[in-house]
Amino acid sequence: MNDEARLKTWNAYQAAWGPVGESERRRLLEQSVAADCVYTDPGSQVAGREALMARIGQTQLKFPGACFRNDSFLEHHEQALFRWTMYDGTGRVFVKGESFGRFGADGRLVQATGFFELPAATS
């Protein structure tokens, strides 16, 4: 698998975090993450695709319309570092962060770890 294929996998994973319907989110995650994937960030840790589906759903409930853009992508030896910007539902910059991903033999993510400062609570 080359870096272009890994970036395509990451983009599908990242799109699953955006404002898409549940069936589209499931399709994107089935394409991009292993069934037993592990996701961690400063506020949570989940194991498995179904738990990740729920975690993403919680994010969209809390921050409706939030979406991501990749700012940079570095990759080697079945792992990658992604720098990204998260936008709120109105298109304003909301959070900037970095994520580390590890890819399995089939090219899907087996681990995704986000690093960012938690956004302030919205009222």
Automatic annotation (TrEMBL):
Q: Where are the transmembrane segments?
A: none
Q: Which SUPFAM superfamilies match?
A: NTF2-like (SSF54427)
List each copy of the SnoaL-like domain by range: 29-111
Q: Which domain of life is it from?
A: Bacteria
Coiled-coil annotated spans: none
Cite a single Pfam family from the UniProt record: SnoaL_2
Protein name listed in UniProt = Nuclear transport factor 2 family protein
Q: Which organism was this protein described from?
A: Bradyrhizobium ottawaense
